């Protein structure tokens, strides 16, 4: 058991590891894969469903490569001709995260205020 | 917020260990994220390090250590503790990242059997830091008591039974943790939600007008408690209406077959509801905190995760 990884390494970001990294696709325009370190289906599925709501997102999908890997890979492709001009995947993800953050804040506020009758 | 939603959340019933709430105006992914976060990411305190000084009981040391770990500790002030692995104030454990307990029981000769329960777990750093006081074993999860920590109802959680002259002397260190590490740190017994209306429903009006009497009875038998025939009409049984059971693919297939035989189309008798109207949640805790508290913590944790990822997107 001496070289077994510590249990907390599954959910605590180790030193020197980047939380989010983005690798643009070499063949497809406006497309790339995000690697979210120490995240799981909780956030990945939330993010995927939120990105699908964006009409300028052409493709989004995620995978959790292996049960012993503690990261997820999120692939996003955005439309090349949007009305607003350039709209790259990082921008789309940021917008989705902003929406989610606002939604969760609202839910927390409602839960705090809600008193059972 | 270009693609945001305006969700609703309504707590219907809330007590010490049980809560009922409904979530609306949002998506399955949000309901599931809340469920997953409540189960696996809300921190609690649990006994993590056990030193056995003396154990002459019938149970071996590891067995008792495992049982101790599973005893819920009242954890609503868990935020005042640090995680053991990143506590800056100590190398091993201290009052900022742990609470110490001990169990010292000696079964004296006259009683036949001495039960060692959660009530024999005594906090040993009572004097040191005031926030350690509240972390106590939860003896029962009954809903009659007002607060978990002070409740004295029941006999406590049984740890071991000692016969005469057997002795147990154990030191325990409780640490903060989350259920991703070990399930003993989960505050929740159950968190489940029901999607309303169900994703797949049978169109009973259509089935009733289409099918012959014996076909209806065939379907009712086939559905295994989903449907019944009263006065010649198919109706849902009580458990389905209360959401305890769902529609199985087998029943749907059989209904489709019978409809085809009667000259209808399978697509007429099944209704698909792609947009859930609301999610009815049921949440139960072990007694380490109230479900309402766990929900509030879960939402805060989820928001922090989202914000953390947002801060790292370039």
From TrEMBL, chain A:
Record lineage: Eukaryota, Rhodophyta, Florideophyceae, Rhodymeniophycidae, Gracilariales
GO MF annotations in UniProt: DNA binding; DNA-directed RNA polymerase activity; protein dimerization activity
Compartments it resides in: Nucleus
Sequence similarity: Belongs to the archaeal Rpo11/eukaryotic RPB11/RPC19 RNA polymerase subunit family.
UniProt keywords, alphabetically: DNA-directed RNA polymerase, Nucleus, Transcription
Domain DNA-directed RNA polymerase RBP11-like dimerisation, chain residue ranges per copy: 33-108
Main location: nucleus
Record protein name field: DNA-directed RNA polymerase II subunit rpb11
TrEMBL record, chain B:
Organism: Gracilariopsis chorda
Domain DNA-directed RNA polymerase RpoA/D/Rpb3-type intervals: 18-312
Membrane spanning stretches: none
Protein name: DNA-directed RNA polymerases II, IV and V subunit 3
Record Pfam families: RNA_pol_A_bac, RNA_pol_L
Keyword Metal-binding: no
MF (Gene Ontology): DNA binding; DNA-directed RNA polymerase activity; protein dimerization activity
BP GO annotations: transcription by RNA polymerase II
InterPro entries, A to Z: DNA-dir_RNA_pol_30-40kDasu_CS, DNA-dir_RNA_pol_insert, DNA-dir_RNA_pol_RpoA/D/Rpb3, RBP11-like, RNAP_Rpo3/Rpb3/RPAC1, RNApol_insert_sf, Rpo3/RPB3_RNA_Pol_subunit
Keywords: DNA-directed RNA polymerase, Transcription
Any GO CC annotation of this UniProt entry: RNA polymerase II, core complex
Family: Belongs to the archaeal Rpo3/eukaryotic RPB3 RNA polymerase subunit family.
